[in-house]
């Protein structure tokens, strides 16, 4: 029996891209509520995107060091299934919204991975991304995937610089059960390319 690699396409800014991703078989899409991102969306725009999704495709709302009041306000307007925190939030903050959450962990070395589950015991899953001193994800950079080999402390997602060309190697080297891509399937920032999305999902499924 083959193992299905779960997939999320993040940084969706258009309903038609969400619909195309879903038609190709993606498990989840990500909506970025971070003003400094080239892929940022507002609540009204995000609600339209979620409305384009078919049943059983999840929507993740992504925040970076946001005020709790703003997070709650956006969640009232956008029916997100899960929250994804990409900043310096702690576990108490992340779980205070009463919804499942993913916590991004920016990997500089093995210690970041080893301590992650203890730092975020209530996370539904951890998302391991490349470390960048100024940016919180979406950098197109990757890290040493072999650091994750054998990691079983918590369910986890691999992110950081994934593309249709390297995702199969990334899954093989890390042992990932789920992958997250943004810039690697775009024709421009925030504009997803259907052919690249299809190639990415095909490559991930073929491992």
Automatic annotation (TrEMBL):
<comment type="similarity">
    <text>Belongs to the TrpF family.</text>
</comment>
<protein>
    <recommendedName>
        <fullName>N-(5'-phosphoribosyl)anthranilate isomerase</fullName>
        <ecNumber>5.3.1.24</ecNumber>
    </recommendedName>
</protein>
<comment type="pathway">
    <text>Amino-acid biosynthesis; L-tryptophan biosynthesis; L-tryptophan from chorismate: step 3/5.</text>
</comment>
<keyword id="KW-0028">Amino-acid biosynthesis</keyword>
<dbReference type="InterPro" id="IPR001240">
    <property type="entry name" value="PRAI_dom"/>
</dbReference>
<dbReference type="GO" id="GO:0000162">
    <property type="term" value="P:L-tryptophan biosynthetic process"/>
</dbReference>
<dbReference type="Pfam" id="PF00697">
    <property type="entry name" value="PRAI"/>
</dbReference>
<keyword id="KW-0057">Aromatic amino acid biosynthesis</keyword>
<dbReference type="GO" id="GO:0004640">
    <property type="term" value="F:phosphoribosylanthranilate isomerase activity"/>
</dbReference>
<dbReference type="InterPro" id="IPR044643">
    <property type="entry name" value="TrpF_fam"/>
</dbReference>
<dbReference type="InterPro" id="IPR013785">
    <property type="entry name" value="Aldolase_TIM"/>
</dbReference>
<feature type="domain" description="N-(5'phosphoribosyl) anthranilate isomerase (PRAI)">
    <location>
        <begin position="8"/>
        <end position="201"/>
    </location>
</feature>
<keyword id="KW-0413">Isomerase</keyword>
<keyword id="KW-0822">Tryptophan biosynthesis</keyword>
<dbReference type="InterPro" id="IPR011060">
    <property type="entry name" value="RibuloseP-bd_barrel"/>
</dbReference>
